[in-house]
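Reproducibility note. Readers wishing to regenerate the assembly model reported in the main text can use the exact inputs given here. Chain order matters: entities are listed in the order in which they were concatenated for prediction.
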Amino acid sequence: MLIPPAQATGNLEIRCDAMAREVLVGPDGLASGISYIDKKTRREVQVRGKIVVLAAGCCDTARILLNSKSTLFPNGLANSSGLVGRYLMDTVGADGSVGFLPILMDLPPHNCDGVGGMHVYMPWWNYQKQLRHQMPFARGYHIEFGGGRRMPGPGILSGSQHFLGGGYGAELKRGCRKIFGAFVGFSSRGEMIPNDDSYCEIDKNVVDEWGIPVLKFHFKFSQDEVLQARHARETFQEIIVGAGGEVIRNPGPEENWGISKGGEIIHEVGAARMGADRKNSVLNSNCQAWDCSNLFITDAAPFVSNADKNPTLSIMALAWRTSEYIADQVKKQNI
Amino acid sequence: MSKDEPDKSRGAMGRRELLKVISTVPAALVPLAADADQKIRRYPNPGAMPPKHVTAYRRQALDEHEWKTISMLSDLIIPADERSGSATQAGVPEFIDDWLAFQGGNLLAEIRGGLTWLDIECQRLFAHDFMDCSEAQKKQILNRIAYPGKAAPEDANAVAFFNHLSDLVVGGFFSSEMGVKDLPYLGNTMVADWQGCPANVIEKIQENEKKQKT
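Running the prediction on these inputs yields the following structure tokens for the assembly.
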């Protein structure tokens, strides 16, 4: 979306098949360019720049910084705080709850596509209770719905015997038409609180096929996230039963409430957080590295929290803001 | 993707597939109103496309006898009616054979074993295989295994087989072109202007709700 107008300026050159390895640093401690591996030739190529902006996708941004070791920055670039890779977050998910809702049986055929998730989105509704400390966990989640008269694939209406009592022939065929669309799926998407146990670091023993050391991940949800997932499952149950339906699947305590694995919801954020104090953050409030004034990060790595919403629009808004800051600083000849 | 590049997309696809399976669409994947500014891509109407070159299906998993028995069972499970054709007319035996060849292992053994049980039981009761049974004899044996709640405990394995076969026939039929039209599934078409849930749908839900309460 933003690349075509940038290309139209004539000032953009895109290098494909370039696997960024590290940020190059000059004797003055400023970023001087990028070293990358050309995937086609497997040779190292260096590009020079007055300003370096990383947007490699949160974890890979942390990886590039940690791999950018030099005599000036032995622990990796922009890492004097030791926080590159730390406070990694993902969205908290509770997926796979399904209810059978007889009130949705035998509905007139209509197009359920085009508006996602059963025409319903349920935002977090307990802020006030949380403010009054009446909830066992701190942050919110929203509910996404699925099901309805969705596109049939192989496996559709499996287990129909449970709802129709079995049978075969014309009666079964009629029954299948009636229950098609009466199943509703529930998923929660919630906010994770960053913690000390969730981070990535360079794996000293493993490199990728380009010879670049890879990341090793450590991830742990706290009790806060587990209680949030539990609340979501109990809410799904309440909705299904309240609508006179039958709970088909809804993971309980024996499955730790079916809480997602770190990275599963593919909303990785954090790992090079911004902050007001250089001692406990990697970037300042303009996503500029404290240790290296011409280095900026414009992906999800600067995030200090991870709201229950999808992160892309926040990434774009922050990137826009950082871009304006860079332009301003260049004009003022500060960088 | 060029030939010499290994396929690395599987991991990412796995997660997308998972999202599909749990039947939720993450908000990010839902086309937003912002896209409306862009030109709507029009895909060719399938009806207007040149006819596909049709070749006869070649069996992969089932032998001739099994194929005939499965075909017969498929049409007993999903027969033609006033709204659509039968399972065999929708290509269900081909779907099942292809699926069994792909899955192999336990599923293939379970279906084969079930068919063998059916023939042995029909031989015992009627002195011939299932496919040679009269309509009344077929009904007699299917009625024994097609109603899980009423079946005798000693028929449990046969009930499990029939459930599984019935799921394959039902799933194969209602995901076929004929079955999709039968339901009907009306989606996968562009909705330029969303008007909300149709009034007759809401009325029906309210009617169902009333019935449920009484």
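We highlight two features of this model. The mean pLDDT of chain A is 95. The domain at 3-88+268-331 of chain A is CATH 3.50.50.60 (FAD/NAD(P)-binding domain).
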